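Table 4 source record.
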Amino acid sequence: MKNKSLFLNVTVSLFLLVALLGFTGCEAGSGSSSILAKISDFTGEVKVNSVAAVKDQQLKENDSIEVGKDSMATISYLHDNSKVNLFYSEKNSANSKLVIKPLKNDGKTFVVNLVSGLMTFFVPPVENRSSNFEITTDEVVVSIYQTMGRVENTKAEISVALVRGKVGVSLADSKLSVEANQQWVYNKETRGAPEIRPYDPANADDDKLYSRDKESLKTDINLEGRQ
């Protein structure tokens, strides 16, 4: 009887141990994330998850990047040459911040959440990449088809402007396309219908924002002559 009771106790203990190890392994697996991007360049005060950034620092899903006044950071995705530049916004009193979100659509869509501030983006045309790119804010989803533009999220408004290519902007039931030299603007305070306005990317404030992406534009042969 004692031997039978001992065998039963050992069996139950082994079962509990295996179950515990399996649960711990699942938790570790669910918490781990593959590397999606890196900080390829930055100037000034830049933090990743509230810690000072270093060049070529790897980024995974749910990592946050924050830049202070007179600062910027370039985030390059590793698989398709898409990149975004996060700048301090003079329209905000707080730092600019974005979050690398988990992949969507079975890993085919990169997502960046612009919590606040100003960012520019460069996305190759669809024939030059294997993934899609999406920028979200608290109320807006920007689906980027190609190629280069900017998104700004402040307390007063959200704006999406395009230099080249085309994007789709969704806000509640409103879905609009933005073409080159156009700007989509939504006033958070009045909460009226979003507007499409003319946009001149060569204006004094914005022209300097795109300097880091102009070389990428030139080196992508398929972009020559595209609008």
